[in-house]
Protein: Homoserine dehydrogenase
Organism: Lacticaseibacillus hegangensis
Amino acid sequence: MTKINVGLLGLGTVGKGVATIVARQSPQLASAGLKITRAAVRTITPERQAHFPDIKLTTDAFQIVNDPEIQIIVEAIGGIDLPYALIQQALRNGKHVITANKDLIATHGQALTALAASQHVALNYEAAVMGSIPILRTLNTSFAGDTITSLAGIANGTSNFILSQMARGRSYQGALADAQQKGFAEADPTNDVEGLDASYKLLILCRLAFGLDATLASIHRQGITTLTAADFAAAKHFGCTIKPLIRAIRRGNQLSLTVAPALVPNTNPLSHVDDEFNAIELTSTNTKSLVLIGPGAGSLPTANAVVADLQAVAHDIRGHQTPTIAAQVLLTAEALELKTPQLVVLDTDLSITGAAIADHLGLSCVTYQHNNELTLLSPAVTDETIDTWRATLNRLKHVKVQHVLPVFNPDGRAHQTQLQNLTTTSETESQSF
Ligand SMILES: NC(=O)c1ccc[n+]([C@@H]2O[C@H](COP(=O)([O-])OP(=O)(O)OC[C@H]3O[C@@H](n4cnc5c(N)ncnc54)[C@H](OP(=O)(O)O)[C@@H]3O)[C@@H](O)[C@H]2O)c1
């Protein structure tokens, strides 16, 4: 069997994992006849070359995308500008491309998909969204006769690891340090903890799930950096835990998009997805609910998704089939404003009661006091109402709004009666979690 030659751009966490899995040649993979012949890195050392004796290393990635012997390019460098130029060149040269790069696909995915379609080559990026979870393949192949109405999930392992540690009693800083020490968080974790990484994944998911193109600016995005132990106490009081959620709800061509730490009732499967794991729940007309859970990052889990793409492309090449890629026609998503129950978290000097604040807002709602932190569980309201409340509350002398956390309601129609302890409670003693 003639080999299908693969060029690997990057031999870091993901690239090395791909080289390792391909070298193992499982029986299923052996039938694909894949061979990694060249790899691009920044630094070549004799030890590194010795570690990959069958792969010729270069520091010039363009040599690989211009190599006529190579049929498939795997991009695992990261960033946007360089991989964009490399992938465009590879596609123009008639090569199939696989990438793990969500930033690039969220930013230039449409242009690259159109280029791949015009060249009749594949552009696959399963590993870019939720690492090991085969969510893109599932969206592409399993919902042909179904309509997805909403999706929700945990798309960032770093944030989920930090919030899982905080639910067990760690401080934010302590949990972040643990994540960095275990390699789950980068030295600069901004993209992860501010929800940017998850937002990129949400945009990609919306294209495949709904055929709708949305912008980063249309996402209601909130980071996890201001959360404290008292938030977890309040969540626990209401029978919930706090998870870094992505959520998209569709009504026609309208989308309501959120990336935020949210209160998830303990009865929902997403509340039990901990640490670096990712998960996604799809709600659709026929299937109703489908949940997928798995490691969202890491060398071998991510590389496994890349290798699944490699095998699919090899299968198409051997069957002389045009890869199943089409220049997807996307409609532009319009904004959808939905009402959501919210946990309004306030710092107070204890001179004002929850009932007085609720009165001030003209609300009848449940409150929970934990030391200086007072939380109000609001009925379902719009973001506009929340903004009005913020302004009103910040004018009060003894109160400061810390943050407002949404309560997860998968279809946008759930009611806060799903939660526990819907009676006003005050706990001014310190609590251990
Ligand atoms: N890590 C994960 O768990 C994970 C999960 C899902 C998706 N991804 C995505 O996968 C991609 C790669 O991530 P990673 O974690 O594997 O990154 P990484 O560990 O930093 O590896 C990057 C690799 O690219 C090489 N490289 C960088 N600049 C280069 C250049 N100008 N020319 C040639 N080679 C260059 C590096 O070479 P040197 O080794 O010589 O420095 C390194 O081997 C990113 O888009 C990331 O978002 C990662």
